[in-house]
Write a structure and sequence with these properties.
This protein has 389 residues and is α/β, with parallel strands linked by helices. The chain has a six-stranded mixed beta sheet with strand order 6-5-7-1-8-18, with helices on both faces. A hairpin with a 2-residue loop joins strand 11 and strand 12.
Length: 389
Amino acid sequence: MSLPDGFGVPPYGSATLADVLPSAASALGVPVHRGDLPVDPLDLTAAVAGARRVAVLLVDGLGAELVAAHRGQAPVLNALGTPVGTLSAPCPSTTPVSLVTLGTGLPPGSHGVLGFVTAVPGEERTLNHVHWDDDPDPLRWQAQPTVFEQAAADGVSCTVVAPHAFAASGLTRAAYRGADYASAFSPGDLVAGMHAALRTGERSLVYGYTADLDLTGHVRGVDSAAWRAQLGIVDRLVEQLAEGLPEDAVLLVTADHGMVDVPETTRLDVGAEPGLTEGVRLLAGEPRARYVHAEPGAADDVLAAWRAVLGSRAWVVSRAEAVDSGVFGPVDPALADRIGDVVALARGSWAITDVQRDPFGSMLAAYHGSLTPAELAIPLLAARGRALR
């Protein structure tokens, strides 16, 4: 099924977030296995030639379009070289999907973390992947091996440096298992922790994560003084990381998604539209990437109703149509029920909110999750240690 104008299909196995860690690990000599996908489609083996240590910093919410539009606030980011150009986030373009896509090196349809919130098949409940401990069991819910596990098995020292609050979460175990977890309590602690981890072992693969830019964007909007000030802090963080690299190390900077501001005039509340609730068993996803699970036998009627009400405000398709479009990559049939019977991906600046059941999530200033360039396009920037320049 063709996508609307302005939407893109993530090119898995070519130039997406899924390709970053397999390419980085391959550059360190790790025999990475990722099914039918190429091991090093980004050709990082050539781009980081000579490196024995690779650090990957993921800045939550750092869309490529936003970086390019703010050269004054982000001079360091805009001065860094890029080994391959812009990459694509996965679908939906949201944090838990992206983090597991990065960690496994696989598209969402293969690893099964298919949304911010998804239904738990066979149960009348949903799973919020950000607020997830051990139910369902992360090793069963996401059973694919991670790139960190493969690299560690090959003798590479693997470390994740990220906020202490996430150390034991289900999402951490799904995305990063195989790596040691070093808690970071501040931006300075993140820099110091990544530098220290890079100096461990004969080869090292270090991953760092920072969430403050995304949080600022959600609360204040990306067209805000607060967001621009936070981008400047990120720029300084990247500068400090680059300045302290070991001589034989490379730093790669990327993101999980971009973000779009959503004004009050382009919000549609599900609860205020009777046609959007009839026949619906569970509503999952998030405001720009909705999964609708229908009552038994009601899927066709729900699809028709959502198409009629939303019109051009969203791409509304059945599960089968969404899967066939390729936006999730090949979907394991055992995982398909985590996707709604109806999929609604917002167009333009629209958001499909749910004020009654999610009041806080419905009042944010900016969102992501859909397939617009502003949400999908993410950077891959590089800085090299002195011995590799």
